[in-house]
Amino acid sequence: MGIIVSMIYRAIKFYTPRGIGTIFSTYEPDKIGEGQKKLKEAPPTVMKGVLSYMDTEEKIVVNEKYPEQTVIIGKQLPTNFKKKLQDLLRSNANVFAWTHADMTRIPRAIKVGGKPFNTKHKLNEYKLIKPVKQKKRRLGLDSNEATCKQVEELMKAGILRRVKNHLWIANRVMVKKSNGGYHKIEMVEEDKARHLSSDQIGQNLEAYVDDMVIKSTSEEDMLKDIQETFDRFRSVNMKLNPKKCSFGVEEGPFLGPLITKKGIRVNPSKVKAGVEKSLPFFKAREVLVMYLAASTESISVVLLAEREERQVPIYFVSRVLQRVELNYPGLEKLILALVHAARRLQRYFQAHPIRVLTNAPIKKTLTSLEKSGRIAKWTIELGEHDIEFKGHDSIKK
């Protein structure tokens, strides 16, 4: 009905003035199936006048057994001091977690400020509340593979163990991190920073949840401060992720923004990501093009803008049909797709005329005097927008 949707290939195909157009999902799995082509990545956008903090860093190998896991140090450091810093890091290589097996747990009872502190997890239960077992939800192929791989590694390390006859069951929730891994709940977040003695926090260290910054006034003091912090970590068996550690840098990201000698400023990498994902610039009352699609169980819409004889995708909206909607005729499903788009993309419908390219008699159905109650309702809802309908055959090729 105008558009062919492929969930397997994460793409849609539709007619355009220059032939058949294809739009792929912006998300791509790590593995590309046979017969599929990976989209060519656009060259990185260079932001003039902005010096990235990445230009002031260099990566070194601390553990020769794991050369792929590097630690960042400041590029501006003198050569002789870099050597001292590298020796310090390598002599404390056991502070870092190079594999899951290295995370051998924090002691169940430690002292914070001279007082005992319990680090055990506890599930707060009420006798009047029955255990909850969530309905099983399946993960995507890539998320499921990542889950199985990490669970296997954590079980080998003795961090996880198999439990039968669960009373409480919750589905897995995978949150992708910037380094490609996934978040796993280890312990109460607010307790992580409490493992450090209060006499260090505020003096040569600042901590917020599980993000920590060692601050020093000189290079020599920095070596002492790093060693002191490492000793504290070692005393409670806390491990660091080498991929997230930076030493001897004058500026760097902390909790999102970039911390520099001159103050806090916007992180260029975040700005760059925003620029690359930004939508095309629109002219006032510019006509936007829309294609509709409907299948047995779902409806889809793609909104585009015309740029130099080509169509630039703006938004792709889709949803699964519910109960009674599954029995709608094909034409009514297309109208429902348009209504759904008008609700989801309201700001575009209010600011721009929308040209719907379809050979289906949608306009005739909406303007007919003999129409069902729901179509009459949809007609009133769509009537507030500037929408025109054109068939594919009316487009000049």
Model description:
Helices cover 24% and strands 22% of the residues. Strand 4 and strand 5 form a beta hairpin. The two termini are 20 Å apart. It has 397 residues and is of the alpha+beta class. The longest helix is centred in the middle third of the chain and has 17 residues. The strands form 6 sheets. The protein has a 5-stranded mixed beta sheet with strand order 16-15-14-17-18. InterPro entries: DNA/RNA_pol_sf, Rev_trsase/Diguanyl_cyclase, RT_dom, RT_RNaseH. Pfam families: RT_RNaseH, RVT_1. GO terms for molecular function: RNA-directed DNA polymerase activity.
Order of helices and strands: EEEEEHEEHHEEHEEEEHEEEHHEHHE
What would you call the structural class?
A: alpha+beta
> What would the principal axes of the Cα set say about the shape?
elongated
Show unreliable segments. Answer: 28-53, 182-197
Helical stretch tally: 9
Mean pLDDT over all positions: 76
- Number of extended strands: 18
Main beta sheet strand tally, sense and closure: 5 strands, mixed
Strand content: 15-25%
If you compute it from the alpha carbons, what radius of gyration comes out, rounded to the nearest whole angstrom? Answer: 29 Å
Strand order of the biggest β-sheet: 16-15-14-17-18
Level of helix content?
10-25%
Alpha-carbon distance between the two ends: 20 Å
